[in-house]
Design brief:
There is one protein chain. The chain contains twelve helices and 20 strands. The protein is of the alpha/beta class. The strands form five sheets. A ten-stranded mixed sheet has the order 9-7-5-2-10-1-11-15-19-20, sandwiched between helices. Strands 14, 16, 17 and 18 form a four-stranded mixed sheet that branches. It is globular.
């Protein structure tokens, strides 16, 4: 059967990890297609609680083959640490495969990420300083190291020698920092290659064969639509496209092979780092939502900025990704609120806008136009059927669906896998 893509509809941290974990129970292949360890999913299951940054969430399901696709950038040290943590908990990682075409985050990427951010001063973008951006820069500049290079020491040295000479010129002459040692870098990354060699392979054939056999293939996105470098709040975006369109490029499949696109939205809005957030709440309500939802970044630990649901952004994400269904997460976080607001449009310079402006300065001026709805003020944690939700919760969900122009397929009412309402089967 064709593939199913799970995409973030906001600025990341929407709860995609839980949704992928839920759907992966029926999947034969779970493949991640973009980003690096600048993104993270929190998974809560029978093994415990896990912060996953690189390995697809399907690793917890014994039947699922897991793929790190060519569209990702991989920090081998982080990947090996994740693999070790899973192994210690008894999770089988023999089903994990890493694309030999995926680019490697090298030590100079991490160093330059930090040096560049510091040099920007007050104009800093707010990166995670994990080296992801510089790694994607080198990929586009055709001077990257790929995972397949790590398993061949001679090839790695040959490729790395001119690259490191150039990087050390930048590190020492522009930033006046200490240069990196070629021998040390080669030794360390060759060691990583030996450890990872059993998992490094041509992965697009794995995905294609599964599709050819009619197996269920789940495509796992990272971050969110509004962090897309083309469509998002540029320059406060990530370095690779987290949209459904990039799922094809990031895994080596064609667009006609995707049947379902599930967009994941929080029942409210959050964002980590800098950049515009039209519905941001800078008052006690924003702090209340943050504390109720424990809104702190999985990767950085930074406090997330919180706001009401932005249906302008939601509608934009649904259209851009061609969504066939929506998953609403963290609805239970709103349980105690007497009233809940939804942003239905923006007002800027006396005009009403029902779309997301491309100009960052214009978007920063946008004031949300709100619609207010009554809260349900009762716990949803035990609800398992849509019809058993309080009338106010059903009305809120129905209004979200209407505003973003997409039916709701899944509703999450807690962090556990079982704390989920499935309105329509998507896999």
């Amino acid at each position: 059967m064709p593939a199913i893509a799970v995409i973030g509809g906001q600025w990341g941290d929407e709860g995609k990890g839980k949704i992928v974990d839920l759907l992966a129970e029926k999947a034969d292949v779970v493949a991640r297609f973009s980003g690096g360890n600048n993104a993270g999913h929190t998974i809560v299951n029978d093994w415990g609680e896990f912060a996953m940054h690189l390995i697809p969430s399907g690793i917890f399901h014994p039947r699922a083959t897991c793929v790190i696709g060519n569209g990702m950038v991989v920090d081998p040290a982080v990947l090996l640490k994740e693999m070790e943590a899973l192994t210690k908990k008894g999770v089988d990682i023999s089903r994990l495969y890493i694309s030999d075409r995926a680019h490697v985050i090298m030590p100079y990427h991490i160093l330059l990420d930090s040096l560049e951010e510091e040099a920007r001063g007050s104009a800093a973008i707010g990166t995670t300083r994990k080296g992801v951006g510089p790694a994607f820069v080198d990929k586009t500049a055709r001077m990257g190291i790929r995972m397949g290079d790590l398993v061949d020491e001679d090839r790695l040295v040959e490729k790395l020698l001119p690259i490191l000479e150039l990087k050390n010129q930048v590190i020492t002459k522009i930033y006046e920092a200490q240069p990196l040692d070629l021998e040390e870098v080669c030794h360390r990354y060759t060691y990583y290659g030996k450890l990872l060699a059993p998992h490094i392979t041509e992965t697009s054939t794995i995905v294609h064969e599964a599709l050819r056999q009619g197996q269920k293939v789940l495509l796992e996105g990272a971050q969110g639509t509004m962090l897309d470098p083309d469509a998002g709040t540029y320059p406060y975006v990530t370095s690779s496209s987290p949209t459904a369109g990039n799922a094809c490029l990031g895994l080596g499949i064609g667009p006609t092979q995707i049947k379902e696109v599930v967009c994941v939205f929080k029942a409210y809005t959050t964002r980590v780092g800098l950049g515009p957030l039209p519905t941001e709440l800078l008052d006690d309500m924003g702090e209340r939502i943050r504390e109720l939802g424990h809104e702190y970044g999985t990767t950085t630990g930074r406090a997330r900025r919180c706001g009401w649901f932005d249906a302008v952004v939601g509608r934009f994400a649904v259209r851009l990704n061609g969504c066939t269904g929506v998953a609403i997460t963290r609805l239970d976080i709103l349980d105690s609120l007497p009233t809940i607001k939804i942003c239905t449009a923006y007002q800027v310079d006396g005009t009403v806008r029902d779309y997301v402006p491309s100009d960052i300065q214009e978007l920063e001026k946008c004031q949300p136009i709100y619609e207010e709805m009554p809260g349900w003020q009762t716990s949803l944690r035990g609800v398992r059927r849509y019809e058993d939700l309080p009338a106010e919760a059903k009305a809120y969900l129905a209004r979200l669906s209407d505003l973003i122009e997409c039916p709701i397929a899944i509703v999450s009412v807690g962090s556990g896998r079982e704390e989920t309402i499935v309105c329509r089967q998507v896999i």
